[in-house]
Amino acid sequence: MSKSLELQIVSECAPTLAGIKTANLFNYKYSDKEAFILELDSANEELNKKGLYIKALRSSDTSALIYVYRRNLLFKDLNKDEVWNILTEYGYTIRNVDESIKRLEQRLGESVCFPHEIGLFLGYPAEDVKEFIANKGQNCKCCGVWKVYSNEQESVRTFERFKKCSMVYQKVFTGGRTLNQLTVNA
């Protein structure tokens, strides 16, 4: 895997690598799509053993929307009734990680606007995702990793944990640790 992709995964996904967040999402630019696909395959071969999965949800000739996730945490999230109730409103019919990700990919392809239920795939609280959609992103109590509509204090503490994790991970990665070494076993 290229250092560029490794660096971006560490920079954007440290809480997921550490196992304290379900998933992260980021855009990645590349010059060779075939080489990028090989990089993803190689990364998954190495990191799936630790419970970490990397998927291009959408891609073009020059960039991809990368989804880095903990399969076990996503499974738990999708099996929460409050999460599933929201997802069924958007055509999710099979309570299964792979099928739900396929539906999310479809929604990304068919939606004129970004499918905001994606927050549920990132581990955001269901109530915050529901209110974000209902309020069209307005009237939140505070904003950090996501816009908060409920439980502000707990969310702010979570944002701080994520920020500290990211700082530590970037420091040790710069100091020579590899992505594999920074990925906690599931």
Write up this protein.
This protein is α+β, with helices and mostly antiparallel strands. The chain has helices at residues 3-17, 33-47, 71-78, 81-88, 97-110, 118-121, 126-134, 152-174, 179-182; strands at 23-29, 52-59, 63-70, 142-143, 147-148. A three-stranded antiparallel β-sheet has the order 1-3-2, sandwiched between helices.
Key words describing this protein structure:
single chain, 186 residues, alpha+beta, 3-stranded antiparallel sheet, two-stranded antiparallel ribbon, 54% helix, 15% strand, globular
Summarize the entry for a quick read.
54% of the residues lie in helices and 15% in strands.
Write the layout of secondary structure elements.
Layout: H1 3-17, E1 23-29, H2 33-47, E2 52-59, E3 63-70, H3 71-78, H4 81-88, H5 97-110, H6 118-121, H7 126-134, E4 142-143, E5 147-148, H8 152-174, H9 179-182
Antiparallel strand pairs: 1-3, 2-3, 4-5
